[in-house]
Amino acid sequence: MDHCPSCSNQDSISIVSIESIPVFCNVLWPTAQQARASASGDMELVMCRSCGLLYNTRFDPGLVAYSPNYENSLHFSPAFNQFAEGVARRLVERYDIHNTEVVEVGSGSGDFLSMVCEFGDNTGVGFDPSHDPDRKPADDRITVHAKPYPTEHPVDAGLVCSRHVLEHLTSPLELLRGIRSSFPAGARTASYHEVPDATYMLEELAIWDLIYEHPLYYSEPTLNWLMTTAGFEVTDSGRSFGDQYLWVEAIPGETGRTCEPPDIGGLTRAASEFGDGLRRVVSHWNAKLEHMLDTGPVVIWGSGSKGVQFLNLVPAGSGISAAVDVNPRKHGQFVPKTSQPVISPEALVDLAPAHVLVMNPIYTPEIAASIVELGLGAEVHDITFQP
Q1: Rg (the chain; Cα; Å)
Q2: Judging by DSSP bridges, how do beta strands 245-252 and 190-196 pair with one another?
Q3: For residue 141, what are the CA distances in angstroms to 29, 117, 197, 306?
Q4: Phi then psi dihedrals of residue 133, to 5 deg
């Protein structure tokens, strides 16, 4: 990409370069050999000086083909389910989403969609090219289609939402305009979109959130500008899930508007310092991990994006024994490139690790309780860094 995918501006700030990272963090492999041979890509992250969008100039969409092997559901975690239920209840109550149709773009198997349908007595329709047609939604009020959102057809719904979809696109404005154009004239359909928060990533040096399958990263001013430009009226926006997520709510607004670029002054310094911060974080955790490995087996808890990136960016990560995950669909598979096996929490009893690295600190209480229940004496560590 030689220009901003959001506003087409060609003036950008260089942020960081990373070579040879897994193309997919959320695709695991049935054998260690296949995992080691899985595809890699390069990242040259920059920030648009006009709209503030962060994007990977070396992103190759030809490498990224979503299929039913893509598995990123977090709904096996009680902590995540509590968060998702809170979002669903808020939307149902705030926008009176009752006895209507709810549409989700990138719905997976419909876990969140089911919540919105349950709380508002709604029916749900999901669209997701990576959906496995053989994995039927548990909720019979829901239908999931293994195809993109049909922007060419009118969609009469009380809510159209997406969660962690816009960061995967190279043309986000095209999708948002397509969603807006699919609404019938006079519709008051509510929209909700959720993405990783770029401001959190830059300011907190959350470097494990950098993954190849996310070519784009949004700050709040950028996402709100994008929604307004696409023809929506933003009603609210903010951070959630420990400030890691950014969300925006909107209703249909004026189309064809030319919007002034957002104020992104607060991001510039954090963006310019992020590359040095990444190198400090990797060095810090490499030294710390080398010491841990001298004292006994080490595992990471979380085989999603954060865990895969930690294993691939930290050289000493090759010494980690396994990745633990509560999602049973991941068990028995292997992490891309570094090829650690993914195991269940119960399998830790035989492994008896000395250290457990928690890839997302928001899950620490839940994981620490599991360690106690399993009768293990492992020391639990949050993967955080304070420069």
Answers
A1: 21
A2: antiparallel
A3: 32, 7, 32, 33
A4: -60, -25
Structure-block tokens of residue 355: 């250290």
Q: Are 304 and 26 in contact (CB under 8 A)?
A: yes
126: nearest Cα among 175, 230, 111, 251 = 111
Q: What is the pLDDT of residues 311-345, one digit of tens each?
A: 999 999 999 999 999 999 899 999 999 999 999 99
Enter the DSSP assignment of 324.
Answer: E
Strands 232-240 and 142-145: unpaired
Rounded Cα distance between 326 and 16, Å, is 32
Lowest mean pLDDT among 24-33, 188-197, 342-351: 24-33
Q: Amino acid identity of 198?
A: A
The Cα–Cα gap between 208 and 278 comes to 9
Phi-psi region of 18 (alpha: psi -120 to 50; beta: other; left: phi over 0): beta
pLDDT tens figures, 102-146: 999 999 888 999 999 999 999 999 999 888 777 777 788 999 998
**Spatial distance between the Cα atoms of 2 and 330, rounded to a whole number of angstroms:** 36
Amino acid present at 349: V
On the question of pLDDT at 386 being above 60, the answer is: no
Which token pair is 24? Answer: 């997919």
Q: Which of 63, 290, 254, 107 shows the shortest CA–CA distance to 177?
A: 254
CA distances to 65, 204, 273, 274 from 387, rounded to whole Å, are 37, 9, 12, 12
Amino acid making up residue 385 = F
User: How many whole angstroms separate alpha carbon 122 and alpha carbon 373?
Assistant: 38
Domains detected in the chain? 283-382 (3.40.50.720)
Question: Scanning the structure block, which residue is given the tokens 């959350």?
Answer: 206
Do 116 and 91 form a contact (C-beta atoms < 8 A)? yes
DSSP class of 348: H
CB contact burial 44-62 (16+ within 10 A = b; e otherwise): bbbbbebbbbbbbbbbeee
Nearest to 308 by CA among 271, 278, 335: 335
- Whole-prediction pTM value? 0.92
